[in-house]
């Protein structure tokens, strides 16, 4: 599915990977509902996008742990853009009231003892994606992107800003690159139940694919197109 002339809902869309997704969708001709608890930042993103005069983005306060606020995102999408066709579940995990494109983490594949709760909740996103993709919804696909360490404000939330430490040791992924990988899953009509992890390897980005799908043809197609475990290598800027 191409995002041009569609409406996407992006939770956690006020900054980081979420904002990168919002900006990418708009650059491709799509409209966006931005859901976030950060009202000031979220409204600033929408205002920045709409300053050309045409309304392409609408900010809506949303705590993803509250079902009624999630439902309201879809209500606003109906009112503003005639309905939502795509959802990027970037902010967190919630009840399966609607279909999602999920954001996981490579820590689900490689458990991190320093962040045990983070690791096992991200692992649940993988299973959530696989289960939801097999519910036989008509014209609905559910996929997940699982990035490694990415340059976002979460690295600054602790007592120490980990940005410089990680950048000088293992390196950091950039939000726009992660957003582009998420968009690829949306635009690939064969992708369903796919968990794609993206991580750094040396001086290059390597995108790897992990597939558990009820559709064997999809699994075989993806396996054959990624025999070496890498989708592509992109030089770091």
How would you briefly describe this protein structure?
GO terms for molecular function: oxidoreductase activity, acting on the CH-OH group of donors, NAD or NADP as acceptor. With 237 residues, this protein is α/β, with parallel strands linked by helices.
Can you describe this structure?
InterPro entries: NAD(P)-bd_dom_sf, SDR_fam. GO terms for molecular function: oxidoreductase activity, acting on the CH-OH group of donors, NAD or NADP as acceptor. With 237 residues, the protein is α/β, with parallel strands linked by helices. It has 2 domains: 1-93, NAD(P)-binding Rossmann-like Domain (Rossmann fold), CATH 3.40.50.720; 101-219, NAD(P)-binding Rossmann-like Domain (Rossmann fold, 3-Layer(aba) Sandwich). Helices cover 37% and strands 20% of the residues. It contains 7 helices and 9 strands, in the order βαβαβαββαβααββαβ. It has helices at 16-27, 39-50, 67-81, 116-133, 163-169, 175-187, 216-225, and strands spanning 7-11, 31-36, 57-61, 86-89, 101-103, 143-147, 194-201, 204-211, 233-235. Strands 3-2-1-4-5-6-7-8-9 form a 9-stranded mixed β-sheet, with helices on both faces. α1 (16-27) packs across α6 (175-187). The protein is globular and about 45 Å long. The chain starts with 6 loop residues before the first strand and ends with a strand. The model is unreliable at 93-108, 209-214 and 227-237 (pLDDT under 50).
Helix amount = 25-40%
* DSSP, total strands: 9
Structural class: alpha/beta
- Strand arrangement, major sheet: 3-2-1-4-5-6-7-8-9
Helix and strand string, N-terminal first? EHEHEHEEHEHHEEHE
- Give the count of structural domains: 2
The poorly predicted ranges are 93-108, 209-214, 227-237
Q: What does the overall shape look like? A: globular
Average pLDDT, rounded to a whole number, is 77
CATH topology of the largest domain, what is it called?
A: Rossmann fold
- The number of distinct helices, counting runs of at least 4 residues, comes to 7
Family: Belongs to the short-chain dehydrogenases/reductases (SDR) family.
GO cellular component, one term: cytoplasm
GO molecular function: oxidoreductase activity, acting on the CH-OH group of donors, NAD or NADP as acceptor
Organism: Conidiobolus coronatus (strain ATCC 28846 / CBS 209.66 / NRRL 28638) (Delacroixia coronata)
């Amino acid at each position: 599915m191409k995002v041009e002339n569609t409406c996407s809902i992006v939770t956690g869309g006020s900054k980081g990977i979420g904002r990168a997704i919002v900006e990418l969708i708009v650059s491709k001709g799509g409209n966006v509902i931005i859901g976030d608890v950060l009202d000031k930042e979220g409204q600033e993103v929408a205002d920045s996008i709409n300053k050309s005069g045409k309304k392409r983005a609408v900010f809506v306060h949303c705590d993803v742990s509250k079902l009624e606020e999630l439902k309201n995102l879809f209500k606003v999408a109906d009112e503003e853009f005639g309905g939502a066709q795509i959802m990027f579940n970037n902010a967190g995990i919630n009840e399966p009231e609607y279909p999602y494109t999920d954001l996981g983490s490579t820590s689900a594949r490689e458990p991190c003892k320093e962040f045990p709760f983070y690791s096992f909740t991200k692992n649940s996103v993988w299973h959530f994606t696989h289960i939801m993709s097999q519910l036989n919804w008509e014209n609905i696909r559910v996929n997940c992107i699982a990035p490694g360490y990415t340059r976002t404000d979460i690295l600054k939330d602790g007592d120490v800003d980990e940005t410089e430490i990680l950048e000088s040791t293992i390196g950091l992924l950039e939000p726009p690159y992660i957003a582009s990988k998420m968009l690829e899953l949306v635009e690939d009509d064969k992708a369903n139940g796919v968990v794609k992890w993206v991580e750094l390897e040396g001086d290059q980005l390597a995108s790897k694919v992990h597939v558990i799908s009820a559709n064997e043809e999809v699994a075989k197609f993806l396996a054959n197109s990624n025999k070496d475990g890498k989708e592509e290598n992109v030089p770091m800027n």
